[in-house]
Amino acid sequence: MRNKVLFRLFAACVFTLCCAFSCSDEVLGEGTDNSGGGEKSEPIKPGASKEFLQETALDFMDVISAQDYENLADFAEFVESEFNDFDIDEDFVDIVEDLYDEESNDYYDAPFRNPVQVMLGFSKIALESAQSTNNIATKSGEVYSYFFSLDASLSDLYGKFEPNYKDEIFEFDNSVNDRIELSIKDDKNQKWVATLKGSKATSLISVKYKYYGEYYDDYNYSSEDSEEYEVKISVPEKIDFQLTCNGDEVVSWIIDSKIPFEADINEDCITTYDYDDYDYNHDRSYEVSLDYSKLDLNTTLNVNDYIETFTSSVDDKRITFASSVVIKGQQMLEANMIVDGNLDEIKNDLDNILEDYNEDEEIDLSDIKKVEASLNVMDKVQIKASCNSLKGFVSAMENVDESDYGYDDEDFEKYARYVNELNEKFDAKVYYNNNNTLQAVLQLEAEKDWYDEWYDEYYYDMIPIILFAADESKYSVEDFFDDNLFNKVENEFEDLIESFEDMFDF
Question: Residue 149's pLDDT is what?
Fold first, then answer.
């Protein structure tokens, strides 16, 4: 049952991914040949679409195999079990202690005190990204956690580590001065070498935090609490992680980024308790500096010929994102997003909110002029979406959320009307084989979700629907992906999930 739910969720996500970014009031049959690219032909009937989408789903899953990552999973498991009790050479510990900002958190919070765990962490993140398919942007963010609380450059930590089984330590060799290197042999006598290096050019992330609190009660008890620390992270603009087995590349991960960020946070809190009542005054002040014009991220991950890329760029008028997944030379996924607007004004709104800590103040969404997104699955299925009024979309969504329950037909009609208004705020279209012929439109439809007998009221929800251009027939995603035609797809999906569960002990 769980895997069937996962399959339906997978199908729904593929067909509704871009619904949140769209806008048009175009009617089927009018101007249906725009933006699809390629040749123009007649749209195919829903039955043929079912067969085509089933074939695409099976082809997609046929390329993915848990066995492709077995060697990396075995390596991670071996290192964790074999070297869990090993210590780090005292010579390296002394280097870290000299570099570490003692006024910050405890030294033992510094992750680079154990570079072996850092290397293992990078390997696990790479494995998780490969397993999750197209999650490299968030996984790249986890990489930066390894630089937390260390006032140093990566180059200050360069050296080579090898296990000394007799003393149960990783010996440090500082003669290696252009990388961090970990070299070990596994239980199959395979030699694994992990290397991590960074560019000389760095971005400085600096966060200062101060807290002061006073507490009083009717029993003349008072207390004070204060906290202050400063975190400095020197992040290389280019990070290069490599993992090889007997000289053959297993993981290659290159991250290019610029993330200059400074924050000064002050908090003052005075709390007075009066029996069952209390007064609470909490003042916060923020000074945040972020040069968004340099907020770029370009990264490429290769795990056993699984290649994932993510790029982003920001200027005062546009934000762009692009991502792709290629497995064994097969283009699997391509996703793109463009946000146009006055980003200077958005930045000013955000600065005002942070400076005054005004929860009621909002970012003016009218400064975002247009959002476009696209998804390409194996060059077979394309979804193109756009939104010309994000403010209008958000406003319509708020109306839907605020009216998602009622007592009679009139209340449901009101909810359905709000859902239709939301549909008018977005546009999401489906094409096949990079052809410019519109095959279907994705929309939302109101339904009565469940009835609360206690309060005698109904709760409403929205379901994704597919409206086909060939005959204007309409199907819910759940009905369209029925058990009969997609039974083989469901079985293959279940087998795929179970293979990953068995390998990685989910």
Answer: 43
Residue 242 to residue 71: CA distance in whole angstroms? 15
Same-domain status, 73 and 87:
yes
The residue count of the chain comes to 506
The answer to whether residue 351 sits within a structural domain is: no
Comparing 43-57, 201-215, 370-384, which segment has the lowest mean pLDDT? Answer: 201-215
Q: Record the pTM.
A: 0.72
Chain segment 367-410, per-residue pLDDT in tens = 788 889 898 989 999 999 998 888 888 899 999 999 999 999 99
pLDDT at 170 over 70: yes
Span 218-222, mean pLDDT?
Answer: 63
Instruction: Looking at the structure, tell me whether residues 464 and 481 fall in a common domain.
Output: yes
User: What does the pLDDT read at residue 133?
Assistant: 54
* Residue in the structure block whose two tokens are 């489906």: 430
Three-state SS for 15-56 is HHCCHHHCCCCCCCCCCCCCCCCCCCCCCCCHHHHHHHHHHH
Joined together, the tokens standing for residue 45 give 């009937």
The one-letter amino acid code at 34 reads: N
Q: Quote the distance between the C-alpha of residue 240 and its chain's center.
A: 21
Q: Which backbone phi and psi does 168 adopt, to 5 degrees?
A: 55, 50
Q: Is residue 146 part of a domain?
A: yes
299 membership: H or E segment, kind and range: strand 296-303
What single DSSP character describes residue 317? Answer: S
Task: Show the domain range for 110.
Answer: 67-314
Residue type, 354: L
Dihedral class, residue 433 (left if φ above 0, else alpha if ψ from -120 to 50, else beta) = left
Neighbours of 465 (CB within 10 A): 22
**Structural domain count, the chain:** 2
Same domain for 467 and 411, yes or no, is yes
* Cβ-based neighbours of 439, under 8 Å, separated by 6 or more: 43, 44, 49, 430, 431, 432, 468, 469, 470
In this structure, the number of other CB atoms found within 10 A of the CB of residue 39 comes to 10
276 and 336 in a single domain? The answer is no
Mean pLDDT in residue range 155-164: 88
DSSP string, 475-504: EEHHHHS-TTTTHHHHHHHHHHHHHHHHHH
Q: What is the DSSP secondary structure assignment for residue 473, as one 8-state letter?
A: -
202-216 vs 261-274, strand pairing mode:
parallel
Cα separations in angstroms, 11 against 52, 176, 324, 430? 14, 50, 19, 14
pLDDT tens digits for range 293-314: 566 788 899 999 889 898 888 7
Q: Are residues 427 and 505 in the same domain?
A: yes
Read off the DSSP letter of residue 203: E
pLDDT in tens, 322-360: 888 898 888 888 888 888 887 777 666 666 655 555 455
Domain final position from 267, 295, 314 = 314
Residue 458: left (phi > 0), alpha (psi -120 to 50), or beta? beta
Residue 350, in any domain of the structure: no
Q: What is the DSSP letter of 89?
A: P
